[in-house]
Amino acid sequence: MSAGQDYPTLPEGLQPMDDQVAGHAFFDTADSVGLLKCSEDASVLKPAGKLLCGLREIKFYEQIQTATTETDLLALKDTIPQYLGHMKLPVDGKLYEFIKLSDLTYGMLEPCIMDVKIGCRTWDPQASEEKRKAEESKYQACKRNLGFCIPGFQVYSIANGRRMRYGKDYGKKLTEVTVKDAFRKFLNADSGLCRQLLMQFLSDLWTIQKWARTQTSFRLYSSSVLLVYDARRLKPVLQYQSKSLSSSSSKLTSCNTSSGPTGTGTSSTTSSPLGGPSSTPGTPTSGEIEPLQHYFKIQRSHSAFNNYEEDMKAMRENYVFMRDNLVGSYETKVWASARMIDFAHAFPAEESTIDSNYLQGVESLVKIFEDFLKDCELENSPKGGVP
Predict the structure, then answer these.
(1) pLDDT class for 96, splitting at 50, 70, 90?
(2) Which of 42, 118, 188, 346 is the most exposed, fewest CB within 10 Å of its CB?
């Protein structure tokens, strides 16, 4: 709500969502409403928007909810917020249609949220020439080179303790190079990249990527991937990661100055599922994860002469195992997620081919986060590397 604007009259238990980072806020344009937050059942109400767009989005969600055999629809169930129906509600005395979805930020004390709009082309086949030209002119550098753009995000900065908000004016200036700075801001990377946060995002992004690489049923225009995490949960994990790194560095120094491999303080190890040493008495447990040896192996072997893509494929296949271990016993609940949202411009595919427009954006997004994971391993590796 802007300064001086009257608070809208809403049904009991609802309030404008203060954490909305993209789209129309309440009454910022004529006859428009924004997201509503429902305090009673951990849900949000998204305005259905224009009649045809709203009906199309409702139909899309209901198709997914009722799917029983359609492969492309079934695979989407784990990549979207839970659909809880639709309804008409009065806002300032006027009825509006809303889509009810699970609140992805529920329970978060400091929700960090980023809207990543996927696709170089963001206008649908029914768009007017005026709409097409308007969409073409927006976020040109990012959409042309990466196939996605960032309309907005908010982050609770660990460095200064304030909530920082970045809107469409910021997003429109981003390029293929500077967009990585935007992601680093969002990830609180000035306090260090967090391996656990990246793995939680990648576990979801790889699922979305897998769907986009194979589905031939739909064409998605102006759809987004919503990234959310709790900065309150990130802070202690970064502190723990820093302690682990310090401990690893001390152990490495001690090992390098010992009389030999059988000197005091050493212990035998057995092979883990990822190729690194598993814990033995006297070594850290899964609640005290050292940087995974598998990651270092990949980082060391990555060059123009080694097949890094095959190594990344192995990582994807084992992501559940790795995520569970990286979270560890001291942080058992997943506190970050990536979900597909906004299906007002989802159309049935006329040809049985993949949606290359959508896939390009997803591939670029995944690549950036995979690169961050590699950077994270370099930042968190003990001085001198691992044996």
Answers:
(1) confident
(2) 42
